[in-house]
Amino acid sequence: MQRIIIIAGPSGVGKTTVSNYLNEKYNIPRVITHTTRPMRKGEIQGKSYYFEDDDSFKKLHFFEHVKYGQYQYGSSKEALKHAWDKNDIVSLIVETDGVKSYLDVLGDQVYFIYLAVDDRDVLKKRLVKRGDDPAEIEKRLNSAEFKRDLSLRPELEKNAHILKNNNWQETKSSLDKIISSLRNA
Ligand SMILES: Nc1nc2c(ncn2[C@@H]2O[C@H](COP(=O)(O)OP(=O)(O)O)[C@@H](O)[C@H]2O)c(=O)[nH]1
Ligand SMILES: Nc1ncnc2c1ncn2[C@@H]1O[C@H](COP(=O)(O)OP(=O)(O)O)[C@@H](O)[C@H]1O
C-alpha cells in the first residue's frame, strides 16, 4: 500500500527537519507544496516550496489549499503522484485543516505525526536561530493559525501519533522505529 506521512505542528517545531531526515536517511521524498509567502534565506524554489504569486497560485489545481497567516498554501494531486512515483512512502507538511482533507480522502494510507515540544518558548528561539526575518516571526507568532496549531485539535486526536521533538537524537530514534514499522506493515 502506498503511504503518506503527514507532519503537522507549530512553526519552529521541526517539521522540515523531520521531513529532510526521512528524505536523507530513507529516500522518502516530500510532496512539494505551493505558497505565496516570500522565500526565506536558505530555501530553494521547487525544493522547499513552489513559490507563487497570487495570480499563478489561482491557476493551480489543488487537492486542498488554505490561507495561513497572510499567505496562501496548497498541495496538488500531481505533486503527490510525482512523489509516489519515486517511493511508496512519502512525506507531506501541512497545517491541521490540510491534515483533515487528506484523512478524509486517503484514510488508512495516512500516517499522521503531530510534532510538539514541551517548552513553547523554544519555538521562537528556533525561528530566530533559523534566521527568519524578525518582523515575519512576530507576525507568525501572533497569527490565529499559529496559536491554533500550538495544540492538537481534538478532532484529530484519534488519528495522531504525537512525537516530541525536544531532543533531536531521541526524535531520530523515534522516527527510525516508525519507518521500520511502516515498512513491515
Ligand atoms: N494545508 C496546507 N498547509 C500547508 C501547505 N504547505 C505548507 N503548509 C503549512 O503552512 C504553515 C506555514 O508554513 P511555513 O510558512 O513554511 O512556516 P513554518 O511552519 O515556519 O515552516 C505550516 O503549518 C505548514 O504545515 C499546503 O499545501 N497545505
Ligand atoms: N530537536 C531540535 N532541537 C533543536 N533545534 C531543532 C530541533 N529540531 C529542529 N531544530 C531547528 O529548529 C529550527 C526550526 O526547524 P524547522 O524544521 O525549520 O521547523 P518547522 O518546519 O516546523 O517550522 C531549525 O533551525 C532546525 O534546525
Automatic annotation (TrEMBL):
Keywords: Kinase, Transferase. PROSITE patterns: GUANYLATE_KINASE_2 (PS50052). Residues 2-180 form the Guanylate kinase-like domain. Its EC number is 2.7.4.8. SUPFAM superfamilies: P-loop containing nucleoside triphosphate hydrolases. Pfam families: Guanylate_kin (PF00625). It catalyses: GMP + ATP = GDP + ADP. InterPro entries: GK/Ca_channel_bsu, Guanylate_kin-like_dom, P-loop_NTPase. The keyword Repeat does not apply. One of its GO terms (cellular component) is cytosol. SMART domains: GuKc. One of its GO terms (molecular function) is GMP kinase activity. Essential for recycling GMP and indirectly, cGMP. This is Guanylate kinase. The lineage of its organism: Bacteria, Bacillati, Bacillota, Bacilli, Lactobacillales.
